[in-house]
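Project standup — Tuesday

K.O.: blocked on the structure for the chain from last sprint. Re-posting the sequence here as requested.
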Amino acid sequence: MATADVPALIAIGETMAMVTPSRAESLLDAESIRLRVGGAESNVAGHVAALGGAAAWVSALGDDVLGRRVRREIESQGIDTRWVSFDETAPTGVFFKDPGRGVSYYRAGSAASRMTPASIALIPIEQSAIVHVSGITPALSDDCAAMIDAVFDRVAASSALLSFDVNHRQGLWPVADAAPILRDLANRADIVFVGRDEAETLWGCRTAEDVRAHLPAPARLIVKDGDVGATEFSADGPIFVPAIPTEVVEPVGAGDAFAGGYLAGLLRGWTVQECLRSGHERAHLVLQSTSDSAPPAAAGGAHPPLADVAR
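H.V.: unblocked you, prediction finished:
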């Protein structure tokens, strides 16, 4: 249960400076580019904040102009950054988004990759309602993997819920290394997000039901199937909500948007169908943009007050 001074959601993970074309065109041909920020966990926090939830982002940044810019932009989204640290000996990571063609990362040796269990020792994650992490962080370094393990252990001993987005990045670690680690982490979490195609790559799961059989432990398992829809598996059985038809400009960041929309709904005490619909709505917005950041909620949407989430 979140306390008055601790945000309902705490997200932990790396965010980098992001270079992207100003328009939906290739990086090769673009004459105008924008400098923004992007990171799976801060993206999720941004979508929760955009829907009225209290969210914090925890990470390390280089003590450089890019690090200060990253923190400023994240704060501008209404995200609490009080627990972000600055490292004088390591840089802020950078990545380039090439719309429709993927991304190029320059993050080796970044400040965030040096995070350890000590980096979060004084952060009251147990006092939040939901702690959100992803499978990107344990791939950054052995120290980051140890930090994620510490997060799981601490949350498991509290009343908070652990939200985990599998988020496999093949550029960070091969399938053979990632598959067993991501499976084990997912089975230790309370809420898990995973793409059906991602699960097929990692574990050979061809259907949402196959994914559930492979990940039986999470109380809430959400399997996303691109433009088809998403299925939640819980004690109430499977519930499917179709995706919103969308003309896609750029897919990067849509999974984070879905998770943020879903978690915002969960914090409000919405039904499963409403949470899944909220996830689709946030993904729909991001899919139509070259940006990863969270657009504000649509005007006129009446939402119930935020609710505490019990394990």
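K.O.: great, moving the ticket to review. Helices lie at 40-50, 65-76, 142-156, 175-186, 196-203, 208-214, 254-267, 272-287. Residues 33 and 176 are 36 Å apart (CA to CA).
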